[in-house]
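Researcher: Go.
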Amino acid sequence: HRDLHSFPTRRSSDLEGERDLGLKASMAADLAEAEAATGMHEAALAHLRQADELMEATGGDFARRYRQQVQVQRANCFLDRRDPKAALHVAGELLKGSYGKLNELDEADLLTLAEKADVAVGDYPAANEAFQRVAEIHARFLQSPSDPIERQSIAHLYAEAFLQQTEGALRSGNIEGALTAWEGYRGSRPVNGSSRDRPRVGGALLVFAVLPDGISGWMKDNSGVEQHWINRERTEDAARRLLVLAADGRNSGEARKQAEVLYQELLAPFQQRIAKDSELSSEPIIAIDANSFLAEIPWELLASAKGAAVFHRYSFVHSFGRSEERRVGKECRSRW
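Model: Structure:
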């Protein structure tokens, strides 16, 4: 890392003197990777174009496979340069087979890239279509015996696809569809359409998802779904502080202060609806499902924060999706 910025300069001189076309193409692609990592996107794209032309001149099956990899680098470079339309064009050519047939995992990687680019340009139907195909491919690989490291890598990509799908649906205004996509991820299987299941009268489901561009909160009750965007910076800071303070146990005043911040960010947006629901049953209950750093919040402290009297009638259930159970492990789950 220390020498990364000097790497493009050193390798450029090596590249000029190389006569073997295949090796020269490989050097150009390596150079482009270093340039892209340092934000030199134009230089990286120029070297990727050079690598592609050199490999095309060598011919053969290996050259076609290598050209696929170079084009994937180009697409990612365009995406990093905030040119999603160019990234989509390159990905589209690869998916059409212009550089040879793709295996399924390569196809899934490209579709994940295309999904990000579709979200960036606001083409949410196309992003949803890409997501469905990615989820289908990854689910099939996760259900079959394979190398543990490969499974872990696929599981990470599978999760990323769900995050993009959820955020894309939210940005397009499909609040219930976004919640359905998220519930599919939390249940470790994709769900098509929008879920019509509703909690019983007096019951509510609160879902909090840490997404690439922020935190989404949903409340689902017997009458429908409500959604709010939540400030990530304030929420994450207060959550980290509260966990430390709650574990220490010596500064209850500061812990209450952080709990009140989290209450205002996470629960207050739904307070009126929750108050109304609490009047419909003698035994109201709230189920909370949250991911990432929100999964470890002691929600009972938030429910007793100043101004949160509306929650005193409720029973709380804090649940983990199967995807989150794998992340937090037995130690965290035992706290609840």
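Model: Confidence is low (pLDDT under 50) at residues 1-10, 322-336.
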